[in-house]
Amino acid sequence: MHATTHAVFQRPALFAALILILLSTAACAAEPARPTLRLVSVKKIWDKAPHNAFTDLVRYRDRLVCAFREAPAHKGGVEDSCIRIISSSDNGDTWQDEGALSDERGDIRDAKLSIMPDGRLMLLTAIQLFNKQVGSHQSLAFFTSDLKNWDGPHDVGDPDYWLWGMNWHNDVGYTVGYNAAAGYVARLYQTTDGINYSTLVDSLDGMPKPNESSIAFKGDTAYCLMRVFGPAFLGTAQPPYDHWTWTKASEAVGGPKLIVLPTCKLLGGGRRYLPDKTWKTSLLWIDPQTAQIDEALQFPSGGDCSYPGMVLIDGTLYVSYYSSHEGIGHTSIYFARVAVEDAGR
Q1: Which domain holds residue 199?
Q2: What is the CA 259 to chain-centroid distance, rounded?
Q3: Which of 37, 97, 163, 212 has the lowest CB atom count within 10 Å?
Q4: Are residue 62 and residue 126 in the same domain, yes or no?
Q5: Tell me: the pLDDT tens digits for 9-23?
Q6: Sheet bearing 51-60, strands edge to edge
Q7: Residue 101 and residue 18 share a domain
Q8: Are residues 83 and 185 in the same domain?
């Protein structure tokens, strides 16, 4: 015992690393109090198409990058849709149009952004195919290093499986794809290059019609917020993430997004379905043990709305979302700043 203790203390760097690991583990296990979220500002940043929707947001090379769908309408199968990419170098005060991506084979839908281990920006999306003889959907991946030149589209995943979002952990990307044509079968994939995928779980069972999802990691623990028909489900898994435990949440969530704050709290975002049958886009506290959902903050929103992107930088949470509350039948893209106060205290 004395020899072991002496050896550890003779290596100050190792001892310090062990202390940091223990403190980090204890901080997460203690489940500290929720930070206070305060809406600082919100503004409309895009409304050029008849329907502007389904956003995501990422920080890439010191710029905030927002991607969303432009189309004639919300419904699927329409022509003339594209994924618009805009960026900001001043934390959202001004935005620059970086162009658009499309695929002539179908109606391009949700845009999901992630930064790959090699430093490239990846955009994962899907098209609703016009030619139904070849299938219903095809997931696509695009890649860029400068927001100007894009490599793609690359067909990814299995035919008819809509890959919905990507989260990288230890140089591996994880995504859930769902097949609406086959009765809403959800499948978990992993990838190391964004193009070639292997199946981790062939069917995520135990939920009614799983579809849209968001994965986040707290240490090596994986969480997945899953939209279903009815109240959402929260999934948890440990490496190698091929076995999941699912807990029914206290309410439904549309267009879900999930992140982990530095305090280790789970913060979700998405569409809330209120008792008066109206819809709002909100931030949501999610209890990792019980899947209890409590509203943390409600954004100016209503009607056709939701699908937030969320990025936390130095105590400020930046959020993109879409809403039709300022114009019946017309949706716009909004950008909000949220102060995350008392985090870690």
Answers
A1: 33-341
A2: 8
A3: 97
A4: yes
A5: 344 444 444 444 444
A6: 51-60, 63-71, 82-88, 96-101
A7: no
A8: yes
pLDDT digits (tens, 9 = 90+) for 207-243: 999 999 999 999 999 999 999 999 999 999 999 999 9
One domain, residues 257 and 332: yes
Amino acid at 344: G
pLDDT at 50 over 50: yes
Provide the number of structural domains found in the chain: 2
Residues 111 and 6 in one domain: no
Tell me, what CATH number does 315's domain have? Answer: 2.120.10.10
Pair 25, 158 in one domain:
no
- What is the tens place of the pLDDT at every residue in 117-138? 999 999 999 999 999 999 999 9
